[in-house]
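4.2 Preliminary Data

To establish feasibility before requesting continued support, the project team ran the inverse folding procedure on a target of 334 residues. The structure was first converted into the token representation described in Section 3, and no sequence information of any kind was made available to the design step. The complete token record follows.
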């Protein structure tokens, strides 16, 4: 009896060491597209990109992060103006503080509607359209497509319809053709997290390869062998302490491989950039502690909605000024 138990235990441990395994691993549709299918409305399903969006100004190049947990942060093992650096980042050839039109590294925090589309001929007020744009002053309308012109009959200011070119997905990203990707609306983020079937059991705070964030499970996700998942935002304590963001769902790179193959998406806590260069410079805050992912939905003439999560909370209807640098995770509609 004891011998059999020991053999069984050894087999379980071996499975854990090589990662969480599926009986029939899923296959990606493309190098940039993850396996899982997600309902974002009653009629719309999408697949997520393989990682957060990144940009290099010196070559005007867009790409997706190689891994879902990759974040640029402030460059590897650097500190902010308060000498705080919980997690500097996992992409060593970048630093979001160095944002400029000629910077040769990668950035992954963007002001809203900064796809690079120049429409100032029609909308002279929307001057901060480049992915490296930062505010010269506190003027959020500078990011606003069609938002502050002389006409009282302005088109829709969301990143859809006549303003769709302001969506980051209008660009060629890697080898993918322009418009392969798009940004979720705030309603779609909300549906994904709170409305679709069994939604409450399909997201949870997590840590992957040492990076904190949120896992979202696909519509038909099935738990891989030897993997565990606990739904909900289970962090506790001070939101500025990264080790308290996730108290369960801790995955090694090998274990996460099984979760990802099964259709799980991971949104890392990449922090945010405060861009008031006249007052503060371009400062990066709480990398590894909170996440903020833009939606394509405007809020009035100055703000936009985004998905926020940190510690024990998640809110797809958060909103703030468009000058903040936040993460972008794109989807491809099926």
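Position-by-position output of the design step:
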């Amino acid at each position: 009896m004891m011998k059999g138990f020991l053999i069984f235990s050894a087999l379980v441990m071996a499975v854990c060491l090589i990662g969480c395994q599926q009986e029939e691993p899923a296959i990606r549709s493309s190098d940039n597209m993850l396996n899982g299918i997600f309902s974002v409305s009653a009629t719309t399903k999408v697949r997520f990109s393989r990682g957060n969006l990144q940009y290099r100004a010196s070559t005007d190049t867009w790409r997706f992060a190689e891994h879902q947990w990759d974040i640029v942060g402030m460059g590897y093992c650097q500190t902010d103006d308060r000498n705080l650096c919980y997690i500097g980042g996992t992409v060593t050839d970048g630093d979001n503080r160095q944002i400029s039109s000629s910077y040769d590294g990668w950035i992954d925090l963007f002001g809203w509607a900064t796809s690079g589309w120049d429409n100032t001929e029609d909308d002279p007020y929307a001057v901060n359209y480049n992915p490296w744009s930062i505010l010269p002053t506190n003027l959020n309308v500078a990011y606003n497509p069609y938002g502050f012109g002389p006409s009282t009959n302005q088109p829709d200011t969301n990143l859809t319809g006549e303003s769709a070119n302001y969506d980051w997905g209008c660009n060629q990203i890697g080898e993918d053709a322009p418009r392969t990707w798009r940004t979720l609306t705030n309603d779609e983020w909300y549906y994904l997290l709170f409305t679709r079937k069994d939604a409450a059991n399909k997201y949870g705070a997590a840590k992957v390869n040492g990076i904190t964030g949120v896992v979202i499970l696909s519509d038909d996700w099935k738990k891989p062998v030897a993997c565990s998942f606990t739904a909900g935002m289970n962090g506790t304590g001070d939101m500025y302490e990264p080790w308290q963001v996730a108290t369960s769902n801790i995955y090694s790179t090998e274990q996460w491989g099984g979760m990802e193959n099964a259709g799980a998406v991971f949104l890392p806590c990449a922090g945010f950039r405060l861009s008031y260069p006249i007052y503060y410079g371009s400062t990066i805050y709480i990398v590894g502690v909170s996440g903020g992912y833009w939606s394509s939905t405007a809020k009035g003439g100055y703000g936009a909605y985004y998905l926020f999560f940190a510690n024990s909370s998640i809110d797809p209807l958060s909103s703030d000024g468009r000058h903040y640098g936040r993460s972008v995770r794109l989807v491809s509609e099926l």
